[in-house]
Amino acid sequence: MNLALYQLADEYRTALVALEDSDLPPEVVADTLEGLAGTLEVKAVNVAAYCLNIEAEAEAIKAAETKLATRRKALDSRAAWLRDYLKANMVRCGIKEIAAIDKTFRLRLRQNPEAVELDSSLPELPEGFWRTNTTREPDKPAIITALKAGQDVPGARLVRRTRLEIK
């Protein structure tokens, strides 16, 4: 019978309680628990190995994503440079429009809508042309310091969680 890890854990806990309440000799109790623990440990090791395998695959995908992102950025940069090069030469020659020979596309210089360009001397802007953005977020380092010092911080508490380490 192939049981899941949680089922094996449940069996172990159930057996532990049942064997503690029984009048069986200590050797029998130890042998029974050892057999269940061995099965549980084998399953746990298999689950951990599978977990490591999945993490390795995720890392490989992450590396491929990084490589593809670098390649995409290079292509985007090259395309932007070519567009600027093309535009600069059309402006230089006074050409406003060019159609491809096979009429599949055309190049045209167009006027963009007006945009604001700010000088580097921003402090000279009048007060009415500034906008203030504020954000509020908890200062977790200050909260942890206060809690560790014994202060009461309503709405906050220190917790210690566990993590599984597979090496």
In words, what does this structure look like?
The structure is a single chain. With 167 residues, this protein is mainly alpha-helical. The protein has a domain at 5-110. The chain is 56% helix and 4% strand. It has 3 helices and 2 strands. The protein has helices at 5-20, 26-93, 140-148, and strands at 97-99, 106-108. Strands 1-2 form a two-stranded antiparallel sheet. Helix 1 runs antiparallel to helix 2. The longest helix is centred in the middle third of the chain and has 68 residues, at 26-93. It is elongated and about 100 Å long. The two termini are 29 Å apart.
Shape: elongated
Question: How are strands sequenced across the largest beta sheet?
Answer: 1-2
Task: Indicate the structural class.
Answer: mainly alpha
- β-strand number: 2
- Main sheet properties: 2 strands, antiparallel
Number of helices: 3
Describe the structure concisely for a colleague:
With about 170 residues, the chain is mainly alpha-helical.
